[in-house]
Structures are given as C-alpha cells and as structure tokens.
Automatic annotation (TrEMBL):
Residues 6-93 form the CobW/HypB/UreG nucleotide-binding domain. It holds the Pfam family cobW. This is Cobalamin synthesis protein/P47K family protein. GO terms for cellular component: cytoplasm. InterPro entries: CobW/HypB/UreG_nucleotide-bd, P-loop_NTPase, Zinc-reg_GTPase_activator. Coiled coil: none annotated. The lineage of its organism: Bacteria, Pseudomonadati, Pseudomonadota, Gammaproteobacteria, Pseudomonadales.
C-alpha cells in the first residue's frame, strides 16, 4: 500500500551548498527512521554520491546520472525513484 512520504527537494546551482545541507540533514536523522536520498548528478561521474556515502544505518542512496532532471531525465528519474522506494522503504525522502 502506498503512503505519503515526507519529501524534501533540494536544488540550486553548482557550489550553492546542496551537498553540505544534505549532509547536515542526514546527521540529524532520528535513529528509528529510514531515509532515502535520490541524487540527480549533472555529470557522468557521481561526485555527490561519493561525498554523501555513509555507514549510517537507515540511509539509502540512489542516483540518476547524466543531465538536468526536468529536461532529459524524467523517465530515468521515475525508474530510479521506484527502485529506491522498493529497496529502502523510506520514512522520508
């Protein structure tokens, strides 16, 4: 059964502090919750995923590479999001 999942959408240009903000949010995750992070990488190399890699329990990372989400990655984003939901069953995205 699908349920509403609290979701944060964080966007901005390169160097705006998106990764730093996500790292701070992840550091405050309640121990009993499962969180998932889906990263839209602009380049072909996943730098943000490498920076956000964590050993913390209850945090799952997914990635959609190769371009702007709104322009070129609509379907890959939907697929990545579906996979992440099935794998992680998150309380928050």
């Amino acid at each position: 059964m699908l349920q509403n999942i609290p979701t944060h959408v964080i966007g901005g240009p390169l160097g705006a502090g998106k990764t730093s903000l996500i790292k701070r949010l992840l550091a405050q995750k309640p121990a009993h919750e499962r969180w998932a992070v889906l990263i839209n990488e602009f380049g072909q190399i996943g730098l943000d995923a490498a920076l956000l890699t964590t050993d913390a329990d209850g945090i799952a990372l997914g990635e959609v590479a190769g371009g702007c989400l709104c322009c070129v990655n609509g379907v890959p984003f939907q697929i990545g999001l579906g996979r992440l939901f099935r794998k992680a069953r998150p309380d928050r995205l």
